[in-house]
Amino acid sequence: MSKATRAIPDGYYSITPYITVHDGHAALDFYQRAFGATVVLTMPDEAGKIAHAEIQLAIPG
């Protein structure tokens, strides 16, 4: 018997915002500089633009 799939994977939270931007590379650079974000995953498209990315923000406390 297989294990049940978790609705929320480990390391993710119940709220995961999703945004669309024109320049993914610039957006990731901004999030890193402004918020100390860590890039977890990027998936480029055929043209080298960011098709999908995941970042993690440090939660104070």
Automatic annotation (TrEMBL):
InterPro entries found in the cross-reference section: Glyas_Bleomycin-R_OHBP_Dase (IPR029068)
Gene3D superfamilies named among the record's database cross-references: 3.30.720.120
Superkingdom of origin organism: Bacteria
This protein's name: VOC family protein
Natural source organism: Chitinimonas viridis
